């Protein structure tokens, strides 16, 4: 009983060791190619065969230590290169981020024609962006991103094709300025806005003054015309009144009464039948108070004395 149990345990242990070992040894004799993947078989670092068809391919040479396999993906890939410093045509430093989408068309070139694909892409993108963006102003770069993206792609596609890479898309994902340059730019924009505001206010003030002058001229012309019409209307009214003598005399009398101001004017309408006549009123003497007579006599004496004194002085 114990002997059978021991054999069972040994069989399980042997199976768990031998089966993985067999699988591991069998994998040394075949190459598995995934979809959209190529496998490069090299001997002493030299390419001898490329497996392109998806599936399992027998390769007994793979077990040799001098042989190695390189798996190359043909799927679309992307890279993002951040904070690339370039200068525009005015010398303004611009910081950009570039997004690039590509795929490997020739795996043997991508492996053997370039040593470090990542650094090579970054280097060629930096130099190309510097040379192209350096011919534009900052505002042109902001407004023409699509055209610049296409220009960058056309500029590097021939170079990357030598590496077996096809560029699908390049675009500027982010664009910024240095903090001090941004502040200077904001100050310049603020100054231009202030100037534009002052110009608009000045134009508005001049337009308002011109409109006021034109309005005053039109009002003065209308007032002058109205005054002329008023005089003409008054003349016509007097003419029509003169056609009716009784009404005209009544109007003149009312007009004379309207000129009298009760608080300032004393009106004399004549004497009554039992009062003085006009001749008697003219011959009536006006009696003055005694104080007025004394003051008049003293003034005459002073005037006489002053006259005598001036005569004697002249003598």
**Shape type:** rod-shaped
Second CATH tier, the architecture of the domain at 77-177: 2-Layer Sandwich
Through-space gap between termini: 188 Å
CATH superfamily of the domain at 77-177: Band 7 domain
| Derived structural class | alpha+beta
Beta-strand portion reads 15-25%
Name the helix and strand elements from N-terminus to C-terminus, one letter apiece: HEEEEEEEHHHHEHHHH
Give the uncertain stretches in residue-range form: 299-315
CATH class of the domain at 77-177: Alpha Beta
Query: What's the Cα radius of gyration?
Result: 60 Å
Please count the beta strands (DSSP E, at least 2 residues each): 8
Q: What's the overall average pLDDT, rounded?
A: 80
Fraction of helical residues: 55-70%
Structural commentary:
The protein contains 9 helices and 8 strands. The chain is an alpha+beta fold and 315 residues long. Among the domains are: 2-73, no CATH class; 77-177, 2-Layer Sandwich (Tetrahydropterin Synthase, Chain A), CATH 3.30.479.30. The strands form 3 sheets. A 3-stranded antiparallel sheet has the order 3-2-5. Strands 6-7-8 form a 3-stranded antiparallel sheet. Helix 3 crosses helix 5. The longest helix has 64 residues, at 179-242. The radius of gyration is 60 Å and the shape is rod-shaped. The chain starts with a helix and ends with a helix. Mean pLDDT is 80; it is low at 299-315. This is Band 7 domain-containing protein. Residues 27-193 form the Band domain. The chain crosses the membrane at residues 6-25.
């Amino acid at each position: 009983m114990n002997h059978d149990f021991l054999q069972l345990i040994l069989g399980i242990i042997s199976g768990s060791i031998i089966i993985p070992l067999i699988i591991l040894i069998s994998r040394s004799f075949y190459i598995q190619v995934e979809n959209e993947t190529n496998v490069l078989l090299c001997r002493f670092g030299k390419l001898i065969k490329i497996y392109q068809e998806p599936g399992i391919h027998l390769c007994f040479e793979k077990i040799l230590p001098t042989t190695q396999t390189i798996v190359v993906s043909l799927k679309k890939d992307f890279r993002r290169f951040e904070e690339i410093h370039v200068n525009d045509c005015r010398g303004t430093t611009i910081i950009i981020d570039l997004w690039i989408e590509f795929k490997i068309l020739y795996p043997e070139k991508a492996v053997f024609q370039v040593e470090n694909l990542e650094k090579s892409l970054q280097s060629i993108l930096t130099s190309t962006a510097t040379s192209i963006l350096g011919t534009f102003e900052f505002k042109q770069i902001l407004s023409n991103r699509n055209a610049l993206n296409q220009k960058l792609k056309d500029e590097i596609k021939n170079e990357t094709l030598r590496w077996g890479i096809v560029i699908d898309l390049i675009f500027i994902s982010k664009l910024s300025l240095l903090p001090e340059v941004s502040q200077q730019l904001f100050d310049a924009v603020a100054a231009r806005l202030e100037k534009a505001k002052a110009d608009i206010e000045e134009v508005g003030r001049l337009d308002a003054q011109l409109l006021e002058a034109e309005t005053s001229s039109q009002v003065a012309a209308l007032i002058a015309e109205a005054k002329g019409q008023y005089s003409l209307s008054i003349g016509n009214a007097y003419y029509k009144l003169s056609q009716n003598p009784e009404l005209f005399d009544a109007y003149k009398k009312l007009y004379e009464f309207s000129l009298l101001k009760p608080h300032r004017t004393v009106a004399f309408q004549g004497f009554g039948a039992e009062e003085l006549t006009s001749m008697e009123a003219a011959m009536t003497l006006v009696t003055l108070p005694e104080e007025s007579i004394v003051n008049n006599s003293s003034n005459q004496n002073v005037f006489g004395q002053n006259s005598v004194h001036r005569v004697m002085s002249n003598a």
